[in-house]
Specification:
By secondary structure, the chain is α/β, with parallel strands linked by helices. The chain contains 16 helices and 20 strands. It has 2 domains: 8-249 and 449-470, Aldehyde Dehydrogenase, Chain A, domain 1; 253-430, 3-Layer(aba) Sandwich (Aldehyde Dehydrogenase, Chain A, domain 2), CATH 3.40.309.
Length: 485
C-alpha cells in the first residue's frame, strides 16, 4: 500500500474513524493499491460537527478581511505544491498529469475568487426616510456540509470550501470514497495557511454518512455534487429536514454542428471535450447533433480521435465497472444500428494491464431513442445524431432531462443566437467545446442537472453560503436623546 490509511480530519487533527469497515483505494491508472478509506460511523460526524460548532463563533466574528488572509496563503501553498498535488490527483483519479495540473490551476483560480469576497459583500445602506437608515449585511450560516464526487478530487472541494469558509462558515466535507486522498492534502495546506482548528473538517464514508449529514440538526446547509440520482435523494432529504440545499447532478451535453462550422477547429474542440478527463466531466460533450450534411466534419472528428492515445494523452476511467458500463453502451448502440467509426473498446495500456481504459470512441447514426443518446455515459465517447434542420436538433437537445451545457459550432451569428436562446441548458457556448464560465461568473446547470436556487461558484454562491440581515436604524439626533419612536 503506497500511502498510510486515510483518516478523518476533525478539529485540526487526523483521527481514526470509529469503524473497522475500510474500503481499498485503487489507482485506475494501473490497479495499484494506494490506501484504504474508512466508512465512518455517525459518531465521527457528531464529533466533526461539535468541533465545527465550537469554532464557529470566533471564526464568524473574525472580520472577513482577516479571514481571507488564510486564502491568500492557501493559494500560495497550492502554487508551491502544484506538482505534488497534481501527481496525487492523477494517481487516485486516473486523469493525465496535464489534466491534473489544470485541475490544481483551477483550484488556484477559485481561491483567488474567495480572496476577492470582501469587495463583493459590502452590503447596502440607504436613508429610507428622514433620519432612518436601512442596511443589509451578509451573515454566515453556521456549520455547512459539502458532499463531493470522484471526478475532480481537488477542484470540486475547492468550488465550495474557500467561499463557504471565507464567508464565515465552518465546513464538514465528505469526499468520494473512490478519491479520498486529495482532500487530506487540502486539510494540511489549510492548517499551514493558518486556518483555525475546527473550521474545516473531513468525514469519510458512503451512503450512511451522506444520509446522516442530510438529517443532522447541527448542519445548516448541504451542497452536493454528483449523479442526478443521488442529487435528488440528497436534495429531498436535506430540504425535508428544513435545510438549505444545492445539489448538482449529472449531464448529457449536446454540441450542435452546422455545415458552415470550421472543420478543423470544430473537430479539435469536440474531441477535446469528449475525451478530456476520459470523458468524466459533467461538461463533457456526450452527444453531437449534426444539422444537414456534415460528413466532411465527421471525417476530421475521426482523424482527431485517432490522435488520442490511452496512457499518453488519455487517462483512465475510474474503475473496471465503469469501463464495462461504457463498453456496454457502445455495444448496445452498435447492435441497434449505430455505426462505430472509431472504437475504444478493449483498450489496454502496455505495462498497466490492471488499469481501466476506454479508447476514444466515435459513433455515427445514433438515434435519440438509444440509451447512449439519452443517458450520461461518462466516458470518452461521442454519439452523433443527424438532423435536417436546427429546430429538429433543438428538439432533441430540449427533450433531454439534463441541462448542464450545450454548444453550437457555426460561423453564422444569427443562427448561433437562435440556438443559444432556445437551448435548455444553464451553460451554453458558441464554437466552444466546454463552455465552463470562469470566475467571477458562476457554475450551474438547469433541469435535472441542478436542484436548488442559485449556482455553486462565483458571485451566485454568496447567496447560498450566507443569510441577509436587514437593520433599520433611527437616531433622534436633534432631541439629544437616542430613542426609537
Ligand atoms: P455519485 O452520485 O455516485 O457520488 C457523489 C457522492 O455521493 C459521493 O461522495 C458518494 O459517496 C455519495 N453517494 C453515492 N451514492 C449515494 C447514495 N445512494 N446515497 C447517498 N450518497 C451517495 O457521483 P460520482 O460517480 O462520484 O460522480 C460522477 C457524477 O457526478 C456524474 O454524474 C457527473 O456528471 C456528476 N458531476 C456533476 C457536476 C455538476 O457540476 N453538475 C460536477 C461534477 C460531477
Amino acid at each position: 500500500m503506497k500511502y498510510l490509511p486515510v483518516q478523518n480530519y476533525i478539529n485540526g487533527q487526523f483521527v481514526a474513524a470509529n469503524t473497522s469497515l475500510l474500503i481499498d483505494v485503487i489507482s485506475p491508472l494501473d490497479g495499484a493499491l494506494l490506501s484504504t478509506v474508512p466508512m465512518s460511523a455517525t459518531a465521527d460526524l457528531d464529533d466533526a460537527i461539535a468541533a465545527a460548532k465550537k469554532a464557529f463563533p470566533a471564526w464568524s466574528k473574525t472580520p472577513i478581511k482577516e479571514r481571507v488572509q488564510v486564502f491568500f496563503k492557501y493559494k500560495y501553498l497550492l502554487e508551491k505544491h502544484l506538482d505534488e498535488l497534481a501527481k496525487l490527483c492523477s494517481e487516485e483519479n486516473g486523469k493525465t498529469y496535464g489534466e491534473s495540473v489544470a485541475e490544481i490551476e483551477k483550484c488556484i483560480e477559485l481561491t483567488e475568487f474567495a480572496t476577492s469576497l470582501p469587495q463583493l459583500v459590502t452590503g447596502e445602506v440607504l436613508e429610507v426616510s428622514r433620519g432612518v437608515e436601512c442596511r443589509t449585511e451578509y451573515v454566515a450560516l453556521g456549520v455547512v456540509a459539502s458532499i463531493v464526487p470522484f471526478n475532480f478530487p481537488s477542484m470540486v472541494p475547492n468550488w465550495t470550501m474557500p467561499n463557504a469558509i471565507a464567508l464565515g462558515n465552518c465546513m464538514i466535507i465528505k469526499p468520494s470514497e473512490k478519491v479520498p486522498l486529495s482532500c487530506g492534502r487540502i486539510a494540511h495546506l489549510l492548517k499551514e495557511a493558518g486556518l483555525p482548528d475546527g473550521v474545516f473538517n473531513i468525514v469519510h464514508g458512503g451512503v450512511d454518512i451522506v444520509n446522516a449529514i442530510c438529517d443532522h440538526p447541527g448542519i445548516e446547509a448541504v451542497s452536493f455534487v454528483g449523479s442526478t440520482k443521488v442529487a435528488k435523494l440528497v436534495y429531498q432529504r436535506s430540504t425535508a429536514n428544513l435545510k438549505r440545499c444545492l445539489a448538482l447532478g449529472g449531464a448529457k451535453n449536446h454540441l450542435l454542428v452546422l455545415p458552415d462550422a470550421i472543420p478543423g477547429m470544430t473537430a479539435q474542440n469536440i474531441i477535446a471535450s469528449m475525451s478530456g478527463c476520459a470523458g468524466q466531466r459533467c461538461m463533457s460533450a456526450g452527444a453531437m447533433i449534426g444539422v444537414g450534411n456534415i460528413d466532411h466534419i465527421i471525417d476530421k472528428i475521426c482523424d482527431e480521435a485517432r490522435k488520442i492515445i490511452a496512457g499518453e494523452n488519455l487517462g483512465a476511467v475510474i474503475n473496471k465497472a465503469s469501463q464495462d458500463r461504457i463498453e456496454k453502451f457502445i455495444t448496445e448502440a452498435e447492435q441497434q444500428g449505430a455505426k462505430v467509426l472509431v472504437d475504444g473498446r478493449n483498450t489496454k495500456v502496455a505495462g498497466k494491464e490492471k488499469g481501466s481504459y476506454v479508447g476514444p470512441t466515435v459513433i455515427d447514426y445514433v438515434t435519440p431513442a438509444m440509451s447512449i443518446a439519452k443517458e450520461e455515459v461518462f466516458g470518452p465517447v461521442i454519439s452523433i445524431m443527424r438532423t435536417n434542420n436546427v429546430d429538429e436538433a433543438l428538439a432533441i437537445e430540449n427533450a433531454n432531462p439534463y441541462g448542464n451545457a450545450a454548444s453550437v459550432f457555426t460561423q453564422n451569428g444569427g443562427i448561433a443566437r437562435y440556438i443559444i436562446e432556445r437551448a435548455s441548458a444553464g451553460m451554453v457556448g458558441v464554437n466552444v467545446g466546454v463552455p465552463v464560465p470562469r470566475e467571477p461568473f458562476s457554475f450551474g446547470g438547469w433541469n435535472e442537472s441542478k436542484f436548488g436556487v442559485g449556482d455553486i461558484t462565483g458571485k451566485s454562491s454568496i447567496g447560498f453560503w450566507t443569510k441577509l440581515k436587514k437593520s433599520t436604524v433611527k437616531w433622534n439626533a436633534e432631541s439629544g436623546i437616542n430613542w426609537m419612536s
